[in-house]
Amino acid sequence: MSKKYAILVKILDQIREEARDTKWANQYAVDDNGADAIMAARSRAYIHLYLKVMFGIGRFDEREAYITDGSYDGGIDGFFIDKESKRIYLLQSKFRNTEKNFEEKNIDYGELLAMDIERITTGHDQDEAGNQYNGKIQGLIRKISEISDVARFNYQVAILANCSISPQNVRKLTGGFNADVFDFARVYNDLVFPIISGTYFKASDLTIKLDLNNKSAGAKTSYSVNTPSYECEITVLFVPAIEIAEVMDKYRNSVLEFNPRSYLDLDGQNVNAAIKETLLRPDSNEFALMNNGLTILSDETNLNERIGQHNKAQLRLLNPQIINGGQTAYTLSRALSEDRENAAQRFQGKEVLVKVITLTAKDATQDNVAERRRLIDEISAATNRQTAVITTDKFSNDSIHLDVQKLLFDRFGLLYERKRGEFSDGVFAGYIDRSEVLDRTLFMRLLLTVHGRIGRAVRKRIFAIHGFTDAELKDIALLDRFSIGLELFRRIAPRNTNSPKKFRDALAKVYIGVSMINDAKMGTSEAFEHIDSAWDELLKQVAQTRKKHVARYVDPETGNSRTAFSPEKWMNSADFQTDLSEFVARQAKSSPSWKIVQPSQPEVEAVA
């Protein structure tokens, strides 16, 4: 089973688990090991996945209300009425129980013809055979009839299945309606990856409620700043903490797109605990005093204090992005999710300082992307105080790392964590295991290793000095070698600490293993079995030729002091890279299964 399909199945099973202790537990085969029951439950959970990702419906019971799949469903498995976009979505879903069928089997004409879209949308409560549609379909008909401005709405058919039928014929089969097809590749890219990275629902037009109690000078303070390309309006105000918690809980990493980091629940536990402890102190609003607050970027900002409610106001943000304070927002959202029933009481009176920066291009016809990026980066670096932005973080949003991340996921199902905490949401939800996340530093070390650049692979600040061009980072042949190297590394060093001092020998063994595999004549399992013997042979040869790499030690049996070849001293020298490369070259000459994998100009630099 491929990694991507395995992740999909795990997500569906976690969605099924959400039905535990609800009236739908049996329908979602909770604690049921029957193959048929699990298959039916996963098929239904597949519709949940679409609704959660595409429309941001977080609660299981809310999503279940839109699922119509069952007897007499008129061929419609689910629906959603999007009042913002003025669209009515009608779903046809076909989940396949095996990876082969999921990626190869197509939906057929009959399944699309079974969609009674015309009858249902025109208000018929029975199919052509006189069978009454089920209650969920009746509810859909009723909801459509209750839309006051339904003339402004368009219908959109979503097909969650592989489809070899031409778009024109699909349109004919669905009664002339536009159809959006989610084949297996699109499901992996547009549903699976977004949900495990917490980027599955974009915040485009966000409304936040404000409390004007204790605000002696109104809801906000504003200040204007001019840059060569932008007019910047800075708005400073206090926002109820529960509002920030709900925003982060719904939009997650999608509002951290310009932030150099994502959720920091793993690297910032002490900070998170302090934030949460201050927030939840009873009868106190010390949170507003102790916390540095958030900085939010917005394309357009509106604040209205006249909304017909006493001491209330409303803030509107267009395309908001949290560029500083993501850790605070994350901690608030987790505190909310831990106890939703008592959230109103726990968050009562707690507010957080928010600085909104509205960027408006002076030349509306040409938005200066470079200048905008520069401003965002400088603001983020200048305002960060709670957790330092390390060098690697600064590179995390570079387009090349977005490209590499997509390539690694598309080709190998690997989860390249270009931003710290990027997959924390998927780990927290149980969709993936932490061990499945590929550390960005380890990625670069192994990429250098399989390219034959061991000396550089074990150095510090690897992202600043790796030396790869963008084209090399996206080279498919190099990435293929990397995937082999990663598989070998996980066997050689299953408890890797990602410290170059602790696994120089592991990287050298990876290079040897990758070099053994030439045109699939030897697989990774066979190569792994021969790596240790090859490594021992290398050490034997080096000990005979490099007499200078010796260390003094005490013989535990005799108590006498003596000198002997020291692999550690050798691996810390400039000879390490040279000897390793020459050993592989000699093996390649004598064995057809070996392949020389090294840069055109082998490095001989000493290990830092």
Structure in a nutshell:
The chain is built from 27 helices and 16 strands.
Identify the notable features of this structure and list them briefly:
globular, 608 residues, alpha/beta, 4-stranded mixed beta sheet
Give the total of beta strands.
16
Radius of gyration, in Å, reads 29 Å
Q: Please, how many helices? A: 27
Write down the overall mean pLDDT: 85
Structural class based on helices, strands and sheet pairing: alpha/beta
Write the layout of secondary structure elements.
Blueprint: H1 3-17, H2 35-55, H3 60-64, E1 78-82, E2 87-93, H4 99-104, H5 109-113, H6 117-121, H7 135-145, E3 154-160, H8 167-173, E4 178-181, H9 184-197, E5 205-211, E6 220-226, E7 230-240, H10 241-251, H11 269-279, H12 286-290, E8 294-298, E9 300-304, E10 312-318, E11 321-324, H13 326-338, H14 343-346, E12 351-361, H15 369-383, H16 391-395, H17 399-412, E13 415-417, H18 424-428, E14 437-439, H19 440-450, H20 454-457, H21 462-465, H22 470-473, H23 476-492, H24 504-516, H25 524-545, E15 550-554, E16 561-565, H26 567-571, H27 575-590
Parallel strand pairs: 2-3, 3-4, 8-12, 13-14
Antiparallel strand pairs: 1-2, 5-10, 6-7, 7-12, 8-11, 9-10, 15-16
